[in-house]
Here is the input.
Amino acid sequence: MNIPFLDNWRKRHGGTQAAALKEAVRTDPEGVAELLAECELLRARAGQCGLELDDSPGSLSALDQLPPIWRDDPEELPWVGNDAGLYLGTVLVRTVPGAEWDILAGGRPVVRLASGREIDVVAAGLDWAVSGSPELSEMYAESAESGPEVKAR
Here is the structure.
């Protein structure tokens, strides 16, 4: 993940990009959550199909129903998958109490549930983009079940 402001922080503090992102999550979790929520390519592809992504669990179900036109472009496929994972993570963090972003040692963003369970949302998004399985709504439902009740939106 190339995030310019993290590169600048890392240069000033002598850390790795993963360490910079982990520190940013610790010091500015809302800012990092907003950054990870952008999912620009996924939002654009969904918009082309008439779907506005509103960061709700229902939008995950709607995404699952889109025709997978990104599979026709091998260069776009991993980017849509990455965005789909970050979008799944965004919906989890915004609607499941206690869910929060965390960064693994290699710099991969995951969602940590209140139970301590880690959800590798990027891997789930890539699987979804490539094969359609597991569905994003299914991943959300499974993850939300393992935590407290879902926040109202």
